[in-house]
Amino acid sequence: MQAILLKVFLVCVIVLLTSSGASGTELKSRFTTVVYENEEQLRRFNKEIYLGSLSYLLRNKKSITVGEEVKNKLDILVERVESILEMFPQEVRFTVMLLSSDKDVQKIYRAKFGKDVEYIAFYSPKDRTIFVSVRDVDTGILAHEIAHVIIDLYYGISTPTKIHEVLAQYVEKHLMD
To answer: Do residues 119 and 132 make contact, with C-beta atoms less than 8 angstroms apart?
Structure first.
């Protein structure tokens, strides 16, 4: 009985913690659904995701609004990560949940996995969701998390954590090559 109550409690906590993002706005790209609370949060995220030497890939994409630019950047990053890993899963769809701070990321991680961490972003395979702090994110961190998504989808089974990390770090290192 206590186990059932604990599970119900954890589900309620997760719903409460993610409700501000879940009731926010959604932005759909080719590969992702971005969930965010307000336009300022989306602008800050867009500012932090700088493509550098990959910016030339944006030149043929229409980016009139911040939302369009975010969608284009995310799609470019997904394609770049796939290329670096030489992994091209058939169906790539995942969510990116923008959170205001690292503390929000850590609260969700604690509610989902029962551990205290100091993460600024993480990927939850069960939800196919990347949770990321817009205050702390950069292009490398986002590419690292996208690598976890691609690896997860490519193999279709749970792969060892160390393999995930090595490959995700490889993506970060070679992102701008």
So the answer is: no
